[in-house]
Specification:
Blueprint (H helix, E strand, L loop, with lengths): L2 H11 L7 H5 L2 E8 L16 E7 L4 E6 L9 H32 L1
Antiparallel strand pairs: 1-2, 2-3
Length: about 110
């Protein structure tokens, strides 16, 4: 399921404060995507030719690193790899933002 599909499904049933895809994206101050072989030096394993990496830097300085690589190198697509690496970052961020929201709600009710 794509991030957009997940967001749409969550929004359809939400009746209380929640973490949204938009709220997470608004906290991103920098996004860097690249193929591993393009930034590494020295003798490199051929698998690094198809390893897509995304680094997100959040407004508070926290960093997330997402990755994506096809099982078969013949299926590599740089654009799709960058998209999937970004989605990997967002999927890591979602529970962290959920914890933060839960904590804020708890403190507000205390």
């Amino acid at each position: 399921m794509s991030l957009e599909e997940t967001e749409k499904e969550c929004a359809a049933i939400a009746t209380a404060p929640r973490v949204s895809l938009q709220s997470m994206q608004e906290k991103i101050v920098a996004k860097h995507t690249f193929i591993a072989q393009d930034v590494l030096k020295g003798p490199l394993h051929p698998s690094l030719q198809v390893l897509s990496i995304c680094i997100l830097i959040m407004e508070n300085g926290f960093t997330l690193i997402g990755k994506s690589a096809p099982a078969s190198p013949e299926n590599f697509n740089a654009e799709l790899g960058a998209k999937l690496a970004y989605e990997d970052c967002i999927r890591q961020l979602w529970p962290l933002e959920g914890y933060l929201l839960r904590h804020e709600l708890y403190c507000a009710g205390a």
